[in-house]
User: Which sequence fits this backbone?
């Protein structure tokens, strides 16, 4: 199929004062660029909707690994696509190859050859390579150093990272895995489909509390949320527990906050008397983790040992509302837009 001269992309139309809605984004047209030497032209198939976008488009985007977005600029993030043209000097990527890269939120992207990851032939589900759950894997293996027989708590367990974090903890040797979510329906799916031993819905009198879900306490906490959930979880840590913060959804999805902060009350006496470690995880600090995760994740998928839950929003027209849908918790697992 010939490459068109014009493609669509999603731009930030205006900076939101609170949580962004569809009105803050626009579907715009742009010329399809030609690849220069060492570059590839990729026709995107899917791109990821991720919470960090709220921070990138807010005034609170400080000390973030990526530059903040300004009105008129095109959004970006993990994407899966097909190489449709190559520039001079490209040696290792052929036309027709599937690749992942960071220039999502557009139909066509020009990407440097060394900035893409080739999808292995026969991959069971290439969309799974858009998952950001390498953060949970890195947290469990590099910082928490999960040991067989331990009890793990995953906050925000129904999200893109959390839905894989619990399964990963089990595969790494955890004997009891507990999650939290705001939805009773999602709690049921986490137990029935993803193997969580117990799921806590904060404020639900009909379900277990954090203490009831793990009467002996928690050895490892993978925290995606922060806020009140982290405060409560720290009270139930066992001696020598490791708490790794990989996300800050409570702050990112709070309309009263800027998106770049997530205040949490912590009883430091608990940390001292139980020798609890509290650490923040960033992938950039742990070279090689993503490659290791993708290899193990792919093997687990092929063997049917892990499930990758995700929701697909069809069409670029759905993209402006995608971040709002993520913030509202409408979907289970990872959320992607199909171009």
Assistant:
């Amino acid at each position: 199929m010939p490459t068109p001269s014009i493609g669509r992309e999603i731009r930030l139309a205006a900076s939101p004062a609170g949580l962004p809605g569809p009105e803050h984004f626009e579907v715009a047209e742009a010329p399809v660029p030609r690849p220069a030497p060492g570059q590839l032209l990729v026709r995107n198939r899917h791109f990821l909707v991720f919470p960090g976008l709220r921070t990138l488009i807010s005034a609170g985007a400080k000390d973030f690994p990526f530059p903040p977005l300004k009105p008129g600029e095109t959004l970006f993030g993990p994407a899966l696509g097909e190489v449709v043209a190559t520039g001079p000097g490209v040696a290792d990527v052929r036309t027709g190859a599937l690749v992942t890269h960071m220039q999502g939120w557009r139909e066509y992207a020009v990407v440097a050859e060394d900035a893409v990851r080739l999808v292995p032939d026969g991959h069971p589900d290439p969309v799974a390579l858009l998952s950001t759950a390498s953060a949970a894997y890195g947290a469990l293996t590099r910082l928490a150093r999960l040991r067989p027989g331990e009890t793990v708590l995953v906050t925000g367990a129904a999200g893109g990272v959390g839905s894989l974090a619990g399964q990963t903890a089990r595969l790494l040797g955890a004997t009891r895995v507990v999650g939290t979510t705001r939805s009773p329906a999602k709690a049921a799916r986490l137990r029935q489909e993803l193997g969580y031993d117990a799921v806590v819905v904060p404020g639900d009198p009909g379900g277990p509390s954090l203490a009831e879900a793990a009467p002996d306490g928690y050895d490892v906490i993978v925290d995606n949320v922060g806020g009140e959930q982290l405060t409560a979880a720290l009270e139930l840590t066992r001696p020598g527990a490791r708490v790794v913060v990989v996300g800050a959804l409570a702050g990112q999805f709070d309309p009263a906050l800027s998106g770049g902060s997530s205040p949490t009350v912590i009883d430091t006496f608990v940390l001292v008397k139980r020798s609890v470690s509290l650490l923040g995880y960033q992938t950039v600090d742990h070279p090689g983790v993503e490659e290791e995760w993708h290899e193990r994740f792919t093997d687990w998928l092929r063997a049917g040992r892990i499930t990758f839950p995700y929701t697909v929003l069809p069409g670029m027209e759905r993209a402006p509302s995608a971040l709002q849908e993520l913030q509202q918790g409408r979907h289970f697992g990872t959320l992607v837009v199909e171009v």
Observations:
- The radius of gyration is 20 Å.
- The longest helix spans residues 289-302.
- The CA atoms of residues 28 and 128 lie 27 Å apart.
